[in-house]
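Changelog entry

Holo records now carry the ligand SMILES as an explicit input line rather than a separate metadata file. Below, a converted record for zinc ion, shown in the new format.
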Amino acid sequence: MPELPEVETMVRGIKTEITGRCILEVELCHCTRRPIQISPSPANFRRLQKERVVRRVSRLAKRIVIELDGDDFVVIEPRMTGLMLVSDPPTVDHRRVCWHLKPKRGRVSSFEFWDRRGLGTVRLLDAAAMLELRQKLGPDALTMTAADWKKQLSRTARPIKVAMLEQKLVAGIGNLYASEILHKAGVSPKRSAARVTGPMWERIADATHHILNEAIRYEGSTLSDGTYRNALNKDGGYQNEHRVYQKADQPCPTCDKGTIKRIVQTQRATFYCSKCQR
Ligand SMILES: [Zn+2]
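Structure line, unchanged by the conversion:
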């Protein structure tokens, strides 16, 4: 958390406000908690962004990419608890970086990165470093066809759910949506990726589009810890639509015969129905 739908929601939330705007000053907020990773050095990070114009805001897997004029990129990875905001933050204590913008009538005067646990990273990359980062990642989950899925994952013998979290194979999916997608696709999370059949890859590709687009429409999932918020510091709504995630011992919403089980795969919880996921 946040995964593709939450990061896409953050991008959409800040994009209209900050595209075309000029950065006046970057403030590294005073924070007594575990510091986030910033690169290059804080002084250079601040200096290099002064007077630069935001050309474009986009998403790269689970990262927010702010493209500046002159071909540099601010890449923000929220990891566990990071948020991009154009409004007051949930707490003042966990504000990390604030970008002050040249004033424009009727528009926000700043945007910021907030991170409770401090595992997030904020980096300024040149075009070559940006290209290198793109090349490390697999195709974006939202654009993948069944053929792409097969090409990327069918050579690994690991369980399909574990392989789905590998960002160099498929980019954007995390622990929550992996369980949701496999349940909708009717594929067992324990099945070896090498043994997923052609029709199963079709169902996985379809379920991925369906689940991720629906979660974007609901502006992501705010779990019981309440951490994830959209750019206006409001809850997402997709947590009310989850089929299996954190629903152990509840009846399966698809088949009525099964009960949702919780298992652990590579130290992460997986939720599934053993009756309708094969
Ligand atoms: Zn079921």
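Spot-checked after migration. The chain has a mean pLDDT of 97. The two ends are 26 Å apart (CA to CA).
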